[in-house]
């Protein structure tokens, strides 16, 4: 759940969710690799600012790549791309894992955390798109007479739906633990 708040506004479609997920995976993977590589050379008193500079560098590179090669996605995600820098997930993985482990394990951690983030964000985006606009990946699912619940494509709807999904997840985990 850490790091999801900054993307709740843009997960109103699966396409946006996949785009943000790709950006987060790239930043997690690359920043974990670099931080793991330089971890023994960073003085402990300035490690967090160094981590933020590394993360910000990769976010800027991803943003420039999107602007050059995925213009419509870049415009859809807008200001939320730079907010990846302050995403708690990325800094937490840099601090708790990449700064203490080798390059390969840090790369695998970045990839695994990014894929977990992707599953959560895409699930949220899919449900929001289906309920909020009656479509999936831009394809109309229910016909012209479908009355979409527009609240689900708003940021407030994202918080409501996230709470519902967390509740369903917790009930499912609890029921599996008791069986």
Q: What does this protein structure show overall?
A:
It contains six helices and two strands; from the N terminus they run H-H-H-H-H-E-E-H. With 179 residues, it is mostly helical. The protein has a domain of 122 residues. The chain has a two-stranded antiparallel sheet. A hairpin with a 2-residue loop joins strand 1 and strand 2. The relative contact order is 0.17.
Gist of the model:
With 179 residues, this protein is mostly helical.
Helix content: 55-70%
Sequence of secondary-structure elements: HHHHHEEH
Distance between the termini: 25 Å
Q: Which residue ranges are poorly predicted, with pLDDT under 50 across at least 5 consecutive positions?
A: none
| Mean pLDDT, all residues | 88
Structural class: mainly alpha
How would the global form be characterised? globular
Strand order of the largest sheet: 1-2
Query: What share of residues are in beta strands?
Result: under 5%
How many individual helices?
6
- Over the alpha carbons, how many angstroms does the gyration radius reach? 18 Å
Q: How many distinct beta strands?
A: 2
Main beta-sheet strand count, sense and barrel state: 2 strands, antiparallel
Give the topology, please:
Blueprint (H helix, E strand, L loop, with lengths): L13 H25 L8 H23 L1 H7 L10 H11 L4 H31 L1 E2 L2 E2 L14 H24 L1
Antiparallel strand pairs: 1-2
Helix pairs in contact: 1-2, 1-4, 1-5, 2-3, 2-4, 4-5
């Amino acid at each position: 759940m850490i790091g999801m708040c900054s993307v709740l506004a843009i997960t109103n479609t699966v396409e946006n969710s996949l785009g943000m997920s790709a950006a987060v995976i790239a930043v997690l993977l690359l920043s974990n690799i670099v931080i793991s590589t330089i971890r023994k050379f960073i003085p402990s008193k300035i490690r967090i600012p160094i981590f933020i500079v590394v993360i910000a560098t990769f976010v800027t590179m991803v943003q420039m790549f999107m602007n050059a090669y995925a213009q419509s996605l870049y415009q859809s995600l807008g200001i939320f791309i730079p907010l990846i820098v302050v995403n708690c997930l990325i800094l937490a993985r840099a601090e708790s894992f990449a700064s203490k482990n080798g390059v390969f394990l840090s790369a695998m951690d970045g990839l695994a955390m990014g894929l977990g983030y992707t599953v959560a964000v895409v699930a949220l985006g899919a449900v929001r798109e289906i309920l909020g606009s009656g479509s999936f990946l831009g394809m109309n699912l229910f016909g012209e007479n479908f009355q979409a619940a527009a609240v689900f494509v708003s940021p407030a709807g994202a918080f409501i739906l996230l709470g519902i999904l967390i509740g369903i997840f917790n009930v499912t985990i609890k029921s599996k633990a008791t069986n």
